[in-house]
């Protein structure tokens, strides 16, 4: 983040003005509220930026979405809104500053009588640690590793692998999503009892082998 010199408030304003939301997310979110399904953002980004984006893109209900992510702090002797006045404050000491599995695991380890069904949607390698902790992982179709994450993983054995490839390699059940309309449809089926979580979680490998996951199955290691 050393290359970013703008004051933090200007960074937030720029992102709020330029970032768009999946057009189907709000539809899913309103449905989830009516059905008492909590929505939590687990991110390797920064909480104040994510909150500002949600406030702008989701509206008054944004405060019903919990955020677990990295934070930001003022550099010594500066204000956060000075030029080069801020820096990241990581959530933990992992590669990405936030090991998402640590947030999910306490819920995954609850007794069966109280444990919720855990859905997780991800699109990149910062989601790898979370992949093994959920009941149904939604992996973004054809979405490879983002360049900034390649820089963070220079010494990782998964440097040239995306989330779908990782799941196939590690035999982690998943299904593929294109946008939040497909997530809503699948979650609705599970809530209604017309699809079992276990069956949905087998779909990803079939989609991968048939070429429907947007990943080249013939790519050389």
Count of β-strands? 6
Radius of gyration: 18 Å
Helix content: 25-40%
Cα distance spanning the termini: 31 Å
Structural shape: globular
Number of helices: 10
Average pLDDT score: 85
Helix-strand sequence: HHEHEEHEHEHHEHHH
Proportion of residues in β-strands: 5-15%
Strand order of the largest sheet: 1-2-3
Word description of this protein:
- The radius of gyration is 18 Å and the shape is globular.
- It is α/β, with parallel strands linked by helices.
- Helices cover 38% and strands 14% of the residues.
- The two termini are 31 Å apart.
- The strands form two sheets. A three-stranded mixed sheet has the order 1-2-3.
Layout of helices and strands, plus pairs?
Blueprint: H1 8-18, H2 25-34, E1 40-46, H3 47-57, E2 66-74, E3 86-89, H4 100-108, E4 119-122, H5 128-131, E5 136-140, H6 147-152, H7 163-170, E6 175-177, H8 180-192, H9 197-200, H10 203-209
Helix pairs in contact: 1-3, 2-8
What keywords describe this structure?
221 residues, alpha/beta, 3-stranded mixed β-sheet, 14% strand
Short description:
The chain is of the alpha/beta class and about 220 residues long.
């Amino acid at each position: 983040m050393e290359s970013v010199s703008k004051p933090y408030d200007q960074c937030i304003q720029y992102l709020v003005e330029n970032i768009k939301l999946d057009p189907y997310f709000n539809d899913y979110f309103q449905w989830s509220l009516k059905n008492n399904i909590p929505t939590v953002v687990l991110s390797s980004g920064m909480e104040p930026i994510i909150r500002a984006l949600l406030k702008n893109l989701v509206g008054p209900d944004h405060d019903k979405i919990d955020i677990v992510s990295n934070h930001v702090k003022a550099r010594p002797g500066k204000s956060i809104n000075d030029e080069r006045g801020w820096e990241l404050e990581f959530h933990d000491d992992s590669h990405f500053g936030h090991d998402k599995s640590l947030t999910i695991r306490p819920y995954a380890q609850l007794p069966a009588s109280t444990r919720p069904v855990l859905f997780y949607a991800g699109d990149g390698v910062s989601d790898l640690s979370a992949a093994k902790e959920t009941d149904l992982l939604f992996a973004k179709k054809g979405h490879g590793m983002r360049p900034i994450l390649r820089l963070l993983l220079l010494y990782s054995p998964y440097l040239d692998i995306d989330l779908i490839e990782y799941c196939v390699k590690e035999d982690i059940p998943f299904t593929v999503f294109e946008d939040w309309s497909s997530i809503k449809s699948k979650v609705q089926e599970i809530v209604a009892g017309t699809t079992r979580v276990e069956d949905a979680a087998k779909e990803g490998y079939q989609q991968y082998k048939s070429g429907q996951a947007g990943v080249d199955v013939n790519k050389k290691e």
